[in-house]
Write a structure and sequence with these properties.
The protein is α+β, with helices and mostly antiparallel strands. It is built from twelve helices and ten strands. Strands 1, 4, 5, 6, 7, 8 and 9 form a seven-stranded antiparallel beta sheet that branches. Helix 8 crosses helix 12 and helix 11 runs antiparallel to helix 12. The termini are far apart.
Length: 356
């Protein structure tokens, strides 16, 4: 049978399909972290693996020259991005070169459909300024990776996970025609040195057994408390980060960064506040989860203090938003004081946890 007829026959039989995702994912301070975890943790899976990880924190030392990168990171969340998978047992990736397959624009959406029907989440770089409903739609041009997990040929839409026009992570329907414009954007082609945007990355979700090990959690907590560069432990299989401060040492770097902010017009990087909040939330949720699973339980006083850290981190996030609106430098002093409160609490809490 002719391949074109085969594709059209499949489309006629199935008009829409969506793959499962975890929404909202437990971390979404970074888009690629959000999309990776939304796949890995679909159907409430792989929680033992999740809560056994993502304990360390990093802050990029040369923040004055970071460009578009993230100041504050949760380790190894940033290593879940393309070609750096810290979750390779749960997320398989395949790169499809469209030049080899000779998939032209009139066939691209049909083949995205076929990939999804076969259980593959589809990722690609696109000029996302062309995608109405996303936060990028007001820009003139913006190159960014998107993740497609569903389609509807009746409404001519694709389902993507991204930030919407209100800056909130959301499941967004984008028009197929807009997707084609974004994928084959001339400006994107020029940015890629004249090469066509010719690669799709397919993600396949895997489920494998994982046994939560609180001994490993203790090691990560010790690294955090002692500001040890945890990436050195895993440098045989993951990139080693020699450019960041780690654990408790991130507080001093955040204070240094915040003190430099009044000299800049752009304000405080809100992504730092989001990541910091998510780290404190996960640290609290971890012990609630372990207690519910009877893996490890700590005294109620410690868990209440961890919960208090979450509330303070949420206040810090709101204060960052307020500073960016008002540029009132007194707010920075308030943020710094609240950071110091959490720092001192963590020094006490994690020492107690390691001694117990």
């Amino acid at each position: 049978m002719d391949n074109n007829l085969l594709c059209m026959d499949v489309i006629n039989r199935v008009e829409s399909n969506c793959l499962d995702i975890c929404f909202p994912p437990p971390m979404y301070f970074s888009h690629h972290v959000a999309t990776s975890l939304s796949i890995i943790m679909a159907n409430n899976e792989n929680k033992d693996w999740f809560y056994n990880n993502f304990i360390q924190a990093t802050f990029y030392n040369d923040f004055a020259n970071i460009g578009s990168g993230h100041l504050y990171g949760i380790y190894p969340a940033m290593e879940t991005r393309l070609r750096h998978f810290a979750a390779s047992q749960y997320l398989m990736e395949t790169c499809i070169n469209l030049n080899i397959l000779n998939l032209m624009s009139d066939r691209l959406c049909e083949n995205v459909k076929l990939f999804i029907d076969n259980g593959y989440y589809v990722s690609c770089v696109a000029d996302v300024s062309r995608l109405k409903g996303t936060r990028y739609a007001q820009r003139d041009f913006f190159s960014h990776r998107i993740m497609i997990f569903g389609y509807d040929f009746k409404s001519h839409t694709l389902d993507i996970l991204d930030f919407d026009h209100k800056q909130a992570l959301n499941k967004i329907k984008v028009m197929m025609d807009d997707f084609l414009d974004a994928f084959y954007s001339e400006r994107l082609c020029a940015q890629l040195n004249g090469h066509k945007n010719n690669t799709l990355v397919l993600y396949e979700r895997k489920t494998r057994p994982f046994t939560a090990d609180f001994g490993l959690v203790r090691e990560a907590l010790s690294d955090y408390l002692n500001s040890y560069n945890s990436s050195k432990r895993y440098s045989l299989i993951l990139p080693c980060d020699e450019c960041s401060s780690w654990g408790i040492a991130t507080y001093a770097k955040m204070v240094e960064y915040l003190n430099s902010v009044p000299e800049k017009s752009e304000g405080i990087d809100i992504r730092m506040a989001h990541a910091f909040y998510e780290h404190k939330k996960i640290m609290y949720d971890r012990f609630e989860y372990f207690a519910a699973r009877k893996i490890y339980s700590t005294e109620n006083k410690i868990r209440k203090q961890l919960e208090s850290n979450v509330r303070i981190a949420e206040i810090i996030r709101l204060l960052v938003i307020k500073y960016n609106q008002t540029k009132d430098v007194k707010i920075i002093s308030t943020i710094i004081n609240k950071l110091k409160d959490i720092e001192e609490a963590e020094k006490y809490l994690y020492k107690k946890l390691l001694e117990s």
